[in-house]
């Protein structure tokens, strides 16, 4: 009983099905030498090497592919798990690159602000606010005291003490974007 010859790789037709192209397209690439490294001595095709060579020498936008739903369903049935093709990975990578390019464009147009720059601006604003509140009692105590007819020095002391208590409470409040507390000093 003569047995079949054991092959190391897969057949040309199997590789064509895997790639979603006709067997003739694979034959043409082998004949032209673009898949020469993938052809094993027994005539079968090393699938991994062939896929690398295939995508290195083609434009994925010009490739005719079978509908993804049919091929992925067949793969899922055959292997028990859904597989992502190299083409799909390239498309995902291109989408990520496109999103990064859009972010860079927004930065160039100055429609976005760097997170660290926003944190520094918030800290600076809060320092100015704190200084203004600490000076409030000294600047306005005499005017308020004259209006309500109390001792200006006593009123200034009470106002300053209450401002410090209010600022201490405010310093425990979290700033936007996790910049730390408002009372934190900058680096």
How is this structure best described in words?
The protein is mostly helical. The protein has three domains: 57 residues; 46 residues; 64 residues, no CATH class. It contains seven helices and no strands. The longest helix has 34 residues. The radius of gyration is 36 Å and the shape is rod-shaped. The N and C termini lie far apart (83 Å). 5% of the residues are buried. About 3% of the residues have low confidence.
Shape: rod-shaped
The helix/strand series, from N terminus to C terminus, equals HHHHHHH
Uncertain runs with pLDDT below 50, 5 residues or more? Answer: 66-70
The N- and C-terminal alpha carbons lie at a distance of 83 Å
What integer value in Å does the Rg equal? Answer: 36 Å
How many E strands?
A: 0
Mean pLDDT: 77
Number of helices: 7
Please, how many domains? Answer: 3
For the report, how would you describe the main beta sheet? none
Structural class: mainly alpha
Q: What helical percentage do the residues reach?
A: 55-70%
Strand content: under 5%
Keywords:
single chain, mainly alpha, rod-shaped, 3 domains, 187 residues
Task: Offer a quick outline of the entry.
It contains seven helices and no strands.
What is the topological layout?
Elements: H1 12-19, H2 23-32, H3 47-56, H4 68-79, H5 86-108, H6 115-148, H7 152-171
Helix pairs in contact: 1-2, 6-7
